[in-house]
Amino acid sequence: MKIALIQQSAGCDREENIECAIEAMRTAADAGAALVCFAELAIDRFFPQCKNDPQAAGVAESIPGPTSDRIGSESADLGLVTVFNQYELGSDNRYYDSSPVFDADGALLGVTRMMHITEYRHFHEQGYYAKGDVDASVYDTAVGRVGVAICYDRHYPEYMRRLGELGAELVVIPQAGAIGEWPEGLFEAELQVAAFQNGYFAALCNRVGQEEKLTFAGDSFVVNPDGVIVARGPELEDAIVLADIDLKECASSTARQLFWRDRRPRVYAGWGEPDPPLVK
Fold first, then answer.
1. Residues 99-113: tens digit of each pLDDT
2. N or C: which end of the chain has fewer CB within 10 A?
């Protein structure tokens, strides 16, 4: 099947950003894509680059809600499995970095919330997001079993392994990765290892464009279960990154044939520790 990563910059006009997102879905469907993924905070400027942005709360929405309903409706019209990402106002009145996942008939299969929340220069996320507090999710979609790891979660091998344990064939990563944020090649190496160790495809969809304090890189890419990059988007340009993938490769991968066979999860179970206290 063909998948599409919507590598899209976000301007100041939110409605225009939504229209661009919907147009990108249509273009991807016309190109034969069966699944589309968006970058982190797809239709909004990346407000965590600044501390205490008073405008951020105004763009948070419930899921279902106005924006997710529009994306779900378009998914149904186009027959696209869609992994979106937006700022969510939960029913508990807390805010989350969230990815609603829609099946090809537009049904909302569930919402993945980012679990690990960071805080460092120009990524002041702890001031905006509550921690996701449910298990990682893998969704049975029209195209296969799809898991989601939102941006910072991809750094945690425990999370990436959990998606494998739950049977993910494709892990989609909505990301906001900036130029110079990490050493060159690290984004790719991290997911090449995760895909190889767990026997699934990984597709990272990155933000792109210059904003107040950060320039987002683009460079979205897709990795197969052998850890090989099979598609890549351009740097610093809006793009729809298309990749042909065959999920049947997961079953014959090294991880599924060897690594998973020889795991010792009952031994590992005693190794865990509770969350350490937050260091101020």
1. 999 999 999 999 999
2. C
Domain ranges of the chain: 2-263
CATH architecture of 2-263: 4-Layer Sandwich (3.60)
* Adjacent-strand bridge partners of 95: 89
Per-residue pLDDT of 49-91, as tens digits, reads: 999 999 999 999 999 999 999 999 999 999 999 999 999 999 9
**pTM recorded for the entire structure:** 0.95
